[in-house]
Amino acid sequence: MKARRFLAVRDRNRIVAIASLALIAAGLLVDLATPPALVVAILFDIPIALSALSTSRRLPVWITLAALAASVVAGYGNALENGVDRVSLLNRALAAVSFVLIGILTIALRRAAAGEVKLRMRARRSEQEVRLREMLARLSDPMPFEQFLQRTAVELRELLAADAVVLASHDGKRFTAPRAAAPASSGFASIGQSLPWPVTATGETSSQVVAARLVTDLLLVGRLQPKERGNMTVLVRRPHVEEGQMILAAALRFLDPLLDRCSLLERAY
After folding, report:
1. Are 223 and 231 in contact (CB under 8 A)?
2. Averaging pLDDT over each range in 132-146, 155-169, 193-207, 243-257, which range is the top one?
3. pLDDT tens, residue by residue, 241-257
4. Distance of CA 68 to the CA centre of its chain
């Protein structure tokens, strides 16, 4: 997910950069072909403003410098053809000031937007942490192991806004009992079914949670390692929250000791 997002952002930055430079080149040609009295140089403000659509902090600076250079080249070309006059020089100077001002405003807007995004991310993470603590508090009540598994599946499904959540043991080849699913009628990862490749992949990586795409389904696979029950797997089908992989990893860190406690209580009684 993060890789696809990175590639999308990089492609958008490239498109914005190419479009901005193309507009500067087009503006330079138009500026060279028109008399200085038309003040065509003001059109260079457009690519500077366009550069704000990228996520790059440097692009607006480089586009502003490119616009200033293009204006100087066009002014020199016009001077060679039409001579130098005070009005043309003043127009060029005012256009250059506008380039700098638009560039500064563009950079300021980018920083403000980035700050707002960070604030939203912090607020969202704080909300997710609160929901996670509330879920763990509800799961902290003593209960039989099977009931704990079922409640955990229900709670994780609600936390991740997923289509389905399954907690199941496996023998390395197939899913085995115990198994709990939310919704309970879900036939996903049923006992006896062969393990999908993401489940086996979790044993070959240090990450406790891996994300995989099976046809059109996004699947999160988490690894549980309770001491009393052997390896168990958590499968989350189509989570609809952002950073679902991180949230699931945070939840699993607390579920292992809770699973062990349930097993010990069940053995004691």
Report:
1. yes
2. 155-169
3. 888 888 998 888 888 88
4. 35
Q: CA 269 to CA 265: how far, in whole Å?
A: 6
Q: How far apart are CA 6 and CA 184, in angstroms?
A: 37
Q: State how far the Cα of 29 lies from the Cα of 57, in Å rounded to an integer.
A: 28
Helix (DSSP H) and strand (DSSP E) numbers for the chain = 7, 5
Under the banding of pLDDT at 50, 70 and 90, the label for residue 129 is: confident
The amino acid at 168: A
Q: Which residues pair with 220 in a beta bridge?
A: 211, 236
In the predicted model, what is the mean pLDDT of residues 119-138?
86
Transcribe 105-174 into DSSP letters: HHHHHHHHHHHHHHHHHHHHHHHHHHHHHHHHHHHTS---HHHHHHHHHHHHHHHHTEEEEEEEEE-SSB
Residue 177 to residue 31: CA distance in whole angstroms: 76
* Beta-bridge mates of residue 210: 221
Residue 188 token pair: 């996903």
b/e for 143-169, b at 16 or more Cβ within 10 A? bebeebbbbbbbbbbebbebbbbbbbb
Per-residue pLDDT tens for 26-60? 999 998 888 877 778 888 999 998 988 887 888 88
**Nearest alpha-carbon partner for 70 in 24, 17, 101:** 24
Q: Is the pTM of this model over 0.90?
A: no
194 DSSP 8-state letter: B
